[in-house]
Write a structure and sequence with these properties.
194 residues, alpha+beta, 8-stranded antiparallel sheet, globular
């Protein structure tokens, strides 16, 4: 049976912080728009800021659907599954905002991610999510899987980029500045690293 929580505290917070992977789901307002579901990983790239707020680092990638949807309407759901230990699924439904490099809050938010060097991953934004509904449910059908390690490929690929080459990389990708549905995505030119 599902349970609604008032905040991300205690065992719920511990569960979220221990998971090596989570998923984000967003969608545009258009009824025929493309729903986006993305896996997120890399230990230390998600932080619980307070009982109703989480944030995660948005790294360089092939598109910017989540950013585009958040810029349009802010709706987002985050989900964590227990692949080890007791079966559990946690969802945080809420409003998200991409905080870009040129935002005055950006540097302060980075302090919540001390183990991550954003320059090695082509950090684009910090996504801040304010929870409107926090629920956990059973994960009886989620399989057991073991976590071995983070893949080193992302860091090795983007560590060689500077701000100018990263901006050129984003400009060369079809769905970074504009989403699959034509919504504004990542603002370009890319603001410099603070």
């Amino acid at each position: 049976m599902g349970k609604t929580h008032e905040g991300i505290t205690g065992r719920l917070r511990s569960f979220i912080e221990e998971q090596p992977v989570f998923f984000t789901a967003t969608a545009p307002l258009a009824a025929d728009g493309t729903v986006n579901l993305s896996p997120k990983g890399l230990r230390g790239s998600l932080a619980v800021l307070d009982e109703r707020t989480v944030a995660y680092l948005d790294f360089a990638g092939s598109n910017a659907e989540t950013i585009a949807h958040l810029r349009e309407n802010g709706r987002i759901t985050l989900m964590w599954c227990a692949f080890a230990g007791p079966p559990n699924i946690v969802r945080v439904h809420g409003r998200g905002e991409p905080v870009f490099r040129d935002d005055a809050r950006f540097t302060g938010l980075l302090e919540h991610f001390p183990g991550i060097d954003g320059s090695r991953h082509g950090l684009r934004a910090v996504v801040v999510v304010t929870a409107e509904l926090i629920r956990d449910t059973c994960g009886y059908a989620v399989p057991f899987m073991s976590y071995e390690a983070d893949r080193p490929l992302h860091a090795s690929r983007f560590a060689r980029e500077d701000d100018a080459s990263l901006d050129a990389y984003f400009r060369g990708k079809e769905h970074v500045a504009t989403s699959l549905d034509g919504l504004p995505g990542l603002p370009l030119p890319l603001p410099p690293t603070p």
